[in-house]
Fold each of these.
Amino acid sequence: MPSAAEKLNVVVVGAGIAGLATAVALREHNVLVLEQSRLKEEVGAAIHLGPNASKIALKWGLSLEKLNSPEVNFYHEMGADGPTHFKIPIRAREEFGAPWLLNHRVDLHAELRRLATREDDLTAPAVVRTASRVERIDPDSGTLYLATGETITADVIVAADGIHSVARAAVIGSDLSAKPSGHSAYRALIPRSAFDDQPDLLRYLDGDASGTGFCTWMAKDRRLVAYPCHGATYLNIVAIVPDREAKDSKEAWHAAGSIDELLASFSEFCDDAKAILRRVDSCALWQLREQDPLSTWTKGRVILIGDAAHAMLPHQGQGGGQAIEDAEALQVVLPLGTTPASIPERLKVAQEIRYERASLIQGYSRSKALGPREGEKVVNAQEYAAYNFGYNGAREWAESHGIQL
Ligand SMILES: Cc1cc2nc3c(=O)[nH]c(=O)nc-3n(C[C@H](O)[C@H](O)[C@H](O)COP(=O)(O)OP(=O)(O)OC[C@H]3O[C@@H](n4cnc5c(N)ncnc54)[C@H](O)[C@@H]3O)c2cc1C
């Protein structure tokens, strides 16, 4: 066990993917995670993690067996009326050294939480406190003010409190909220048994001879995405539509969507797409927001990570992956023995490593969703994939970009 003198007191705000990944990454220190919710509500959605993120999580000990996530072996894009635009084999393990995983969100959260809080001989488990809302933070003194009236001080505060971050205003000096993008996303999980009466649709769960895969049906202003998760016992659906067709669209994981409106938005799509959507028995609706890069992610003892730092549109499925990369960068810049006095400088190094890449992916995601802004380069999907997936961690990035660790 490292000595107490070598360890930092780290407080993480938020137990989403970013917060739990940080608790895993910084386990060598004393880590307290403060989460406002009771972490009881099951989020009915999946999240895919590209090899850039799964590679990091596997190094932390992520168990593929526990996760039970199918992998992407092909990517199949179709038109709204059904014909194939392209179907390409995906060799993520061979090309990028790690799998592209199709996870149930609950499985991924549970696995990150297990890694953060399990007993081991070398490090102390992180403590996750639920029903602990942080109201305000003071970046200079490292003080957190909780809704209960309690105050806590820390050497480092990692603000992983999502798109509505309370820490963001304290860091950037103004409240810069993400703007509606004009699109909303329905999300649903359809159980395998819902396909009993039409078994030919099981191919969207089971894939083909090459294995499981990722399917999309694309129209100009809307798209449907379908892929299996949780051992292919569920088909995950993400259906992106113009906001005007999705009444009461809110930005919250648990806001319910209308199945009638969902079906109406895809009434011109091919039979398979409609047959899949008819099997949705409840769905959530999320208003998609876009954000330009913040002027900074860090001030004093606080750093913003994940959606709090770089909320992005989901059209490339990289928001969660970028959060995992942020956490790994903190692991690299805050080794045991880091002195409390050096924290503000160390957090600036973390930002220096992560800012360019996360901002570029944020921009790519916006461009893919809404089209490039005037003067912006049009990047094709192959280029996106190579850039997104070909990341080998903060140390390699720092070395190749002349950043002193
Ligand atoms: C429709 C959709 C599909 C997506 N698909 C993908 C995908 O396939 N792959 C991918 O990588 N990404 C995807 N994303 C993006 C991804 O979901 C997010 O980037 C990721 O969940 C962000 O994690 P986070 O931990 O930063 O934030 P969050 O998940 O928002 O977690 C923040 C946590 O902080 C807590 N919290 C907030 N405020 C406080 C407070 N004041 N005090 C204490 N706790 C607080 C919240 O309760 C929450 O638990 C998708 C997003 C959407 C909307």
Amino acid sequence: SRYTRARAYVSSTPYNVSSVRARLRAYRGGVELAGSPRGANNIITVRTDGGNRVNLNDSFWFYVPPDWRSGTVTFRVEVNYDNAVPESNIGNNSLSRTVTFRESQELNLVMVPLHLHNHGNRNNPTLSYYATNSAFTSLLWNILRFHPISRINWWYYESAEYPSFHGWPFYNEWDVSTSGGKSAILSAIEWKNFWTWDWVSRLHWMGMVHPSLDTDGGLGLGNRPGWNSWAKMINSHDGWPDWYITGGNSMSHELGHNKGLQHVNCSGNESSGGSTDPNYPWPYPNCRLSAVDTSGYYGFDVHYQIWGLASPTVLSNDPAASSPNQAFPLMGYRRPRWISPYEYCKLLVQYGISCGLFTQFETAQQRLEEAVTSNPLAFADPGELRALQQATEYIAAGGLISITAGTAEFNGVYQIDNPAPDARQEAAEKLGYRRVFGLQVEQPFTLVQVNASGQVLDSREIYLVNDDGEGDVQHFLELLPLAPGTTRVQIRQGDKVLAERAASPNPPTVQLLAPNGGEQLGPGATVRWSASDPDGGDLTFNVLYSADNGQSWRLIGMDLTGDSFEIPSLTDLPGSSQGRMRVVASDGFHTAQDDSDGTFSVPGSPPLAVILEPATGTSAEPGSLVVLQGMATDVEDGPLSGTRLSWRSDRDGDLGTGEELAVESLSQGTHQITLTATDSDGQSGSATVTIYVGTPPTRLYLPILARP
Ligand SMILES: [Zn+2]
Ligand SMILES: [Zn+2]
């Protein structure tokens, strides 16, 4: 189902021939498909040397419509089919190629803004990144360019993630220009993921970092392998060619780590960002995308319109090519970055499609890593896995460890009996990951459970998950069965206790006061509770919301203090007439929780609609192909598709429905093209672009983006 173009390379003898046309036919099971043949997008001069493949117009290129993109399809290109150019031999004017389309997995992604200040100084302005429609278009679409997924399902978690104890009257912000700050925000994303019940399986969590934040050159950080990462949302070319969007490329790079990809050695300092792929520089030395070969691999940017380009950019396999055709592998540090066949093949395997192109060059360790990433539970220690799955009481502990200083701190310790199912699942996966992944340190750090008389009840090595330039300070998050009798949880290195949380004699008590049933939540809605700690300790609170009467929960506030929390954005909460709220009180070890006694209502939110192409200002020849591409996501329904997306021209009326629609019959003139997405409770959101068919008028039209 992926957006697809076909290219055909041609040559002529004995001289160059100009103004040549070509068309593409498509057959499945010997039956010609609807819409076949299709004309090429360009009319070219055919050269005796076959032309230069980097030059778009030295070859023919074709749009491949959606219903040609499944099953086994034979494509047949026919050059000079109209005999416009007299030829002595037309027997070599056509060529067939049979390909099989296979559906890979979809990618599920939720994006969470992070609340940050430059250098962690609260006196500096707050830098929280809130995406706009057009930012989603350009940032998100990079993931489809570089990851071989059948589609991307995305959600936006609008309320920002704050540093722990942000509300306390002392300095505690994240300084993302330091190693500790970079790890701390990854840890925060991991905690948010931990508390929230993933609403789809295999959900990746991505923290959004404001582009103006000083990150000391860092563009992102991602667990390898895993589900959590963050990236700097630089929604611009950032000095690179027009096809290159720095933030979207960084997201793709971090998701590559999540899928188990290592760095490749390009700039020479990738190893400072974790392990590098031992195969590199094989198979392609000097940071090449592939072998430098005129008949080899070329990148082709099928999504060019999204970046406002008039035609696709071709990426050369030669690293010496000039801009904008020059590119380097996605997992290296040299920019601009494109996906290499080697990386693409590795990702295909993780998205469920076998790809053996490079298996012969893999080390045994790499094969093992790939297998563990695909199916970590198969590699988990069976005893540990059983203990985790059968436990009724757990310790969830996370924190930061400085490797060189030999220091550590907890950023959360909770004794709980009801972790989210996917939190337990991800803990189980880590039991597999840790067999082959994780930072190796000379003297391991351990997480230790101790009883009142100082006896060690349980001790295990802390899995330092990150492998992407986290640097000195590493983060961890472990979910373990509680060892009965535990009164203290410690981080140790050898016998040395680096950090400790001790249980006070009594757990806290908490009562949720509002919303407690019967309410209709509106803007400014506030969650209130009353809590006490018999031991007089300080309490912090997490607030969770359920749209399904307590079946599943999502974290909306963490590490809160005081006795109330104003919900920052109701659009974060799926609308429901069966809403419940939960408050979890923590004294730093024990937890207590209380839910709303009855259900309350939360208004539903309209979908967010995004037009990917055409870009505003685009013009097309009358009768030529215009591809409309868009998507929408809805807080209640998730991604919308099919008839829930409808397209309309203010000039020609209804055009059709779906995420991708090819139209060739737009009338001459200016069109406002509107995509309207409608969710299951009838609310709608729309986006509009202005395009011209024929010669554009001199008057300037501005893009209109609307979300009621
Ligand atoms: Zn702040
Ligand atoms: Zn990296």
